Each structure stands twice: as C-alpha cells, then as structure tokens.
Amino acid sequence: MSASAKESAAKGAAQAPDPLYQLAEKIFVGLAARVYGTLAGTEQRKPDPKALAAYSFKLAEAFEQAYRETDRRKAALEAANKAAVKLDEVDLSSVFQSAGKP
After folding, report:
1. Which end of the chain has fewer CB within 10 Å, C or N?
2. Count of other CB atoms within 10 angstroms of residue 2
3. How far is CA 92 from the centre of its chain?
4. pLDDT tens, position by position, 24-40
5. Per-residue pLDDT tens digits for 48-80
6. In this structure, what is the dihedral angle of CA atoms 35, 37, 41, 45, given to the nearest 10 degrees?
7. Rounded CA gap, 68 and 57, in Å?
8. First-residue to last-residue Cα distance in the chain
9. Residue 45's pLDDT band (boundaries 50, 70, 90)?
10. pTM of the shown model
C-alpha cells in the first residue's frame, strides 16, 4: 500500500461520522426530498436548507433520547452493568500479601 493510500485510509478512519450525524443525514435527505421535490404547490414558500438541516439534527437527537428511554435499552444497559467488572470494587490485598511471602 502506498503512503498516500495509507494516509487517506487513516483520515477516513479518524473522520468517520458518528451515528447521530448519520441519522440526521438520513432524516435531512428524506425531508429535503419531500419539501423540495414536490412539483405541486410551487407557490408555497420553501424553508431554508440550513434550517431544515438543523431541524433534522433536532429530530435525530429526540430519536436517540427516546431510544435510550425504552425498556429494552434500559434492560440491555442494566445487564451490561451487572456483567462489567468494576476494578475499584475488587479487593486484591490478599493476592499481594500472599505473593510477598515466600
């Protein structure tokens, strides 16, 4: 692999968009297609694309927040927390005491 190909691959990995951005982008594309793609009612005033994009991000954030509040997601987080090892709660003093004695 050439040096430029490695650089572009590294840039692509470092600049991967987050899921919220991807969701907002999908919402924006869908809204823009409906708002700007309709031929009927052309006398209606169309919203500013930047305002539509901001609205898309608000919708994506609301969707993410609602998803986090679902029972299924709460149960998955609770199960993950129970399965996680909390190193600050582990007492290793007996291990170190027995290791010090020959």
Report:
1. C
2. 7
3. 36
4. 999 999 999 988 886 65
5. 999 999 999 999 999 999 999 999 989 988 888
6. 50
7. 17
8. 53
9. confident
10. 0.58
